[in-house]
Design brief:
Number of helices: 4
Strand order of the largest sheet: 2-1-3-4
Number of strands: 4
Order of helices and strands: EHEHEHEH
Radius of gyration: 15 Å
Distance between the termini: 30 Å
Structural class: alpha/beta
Strand content: 5-15%
Length: 152
């Protein structure tokens, strides 16, 4: 297992639409690390949240109903310590936007569960989103360490 790095002060997750991957990663990281890290997400061409994302996140107790997409062009990307790009297109755009700035960039190529189109049953689609959710959680915990248990 790779060594866990020190927690950054702020993290931005970026994907193409800010509808599936990056908001899911944002919500997962917030649920794991709370206020220990400032966490946000954005997209190259923001679209409304995918209802399957909201569904599979609700299954694990993470409410994203009030979450709204953001455009990477409308935020101060240079104010983040770390930008995690979840698509090749996001990696290229973030590199352009951060040229000459002191921002660390990680690239986590991540499969879009919607890429398969409208094929399959509702449950098969939900399973693809669950796999994405679980993969993102694993990657987040590998990068930032296991979250501390919350007191009940």
């Amino acid at each position: 297992m790779a060594a866990v790095e020190k927690l950054p002060g702020s993290v931005l997750f970026v994907c193409n639409l800010n509808a599936v991957r990056s908001p899911m990663a944002e919500a997962l990281a917030k649920s794991l690390y709370g206020k220990r890290i400032f966490i946000d997400s954005a997209g190259i061409e923001p679209q409304p949240r995918d209802p399957f994302v909201i569904n599979v996140m609700t299954e694990i107790g993470v409410d994203m109903a009030e979450d709204h997409p953001m455009d990477v062009e409308e935020i101060n990307i240079g104010s983040f310590d770390l930008v995690i790009c979840l698509t090749e297109e996001a990696r290229v755009r973030v590199a352009e936007l951060t040229r000459g700035q002191a921002v660390d960039i990680d690239f986590w190529p991540t499969i879009d569960p919607f890429a398969g189109g409208e094929q399959g049953s509702r449950e098969q689609k939900l399973d693809a989103y669950r796999r994405l959710r679980d993969d993102l959680r694993r990657r987040i915990e590998q990068r930032f360490g296991a979250a501390e248990k919350k007191a009940s």
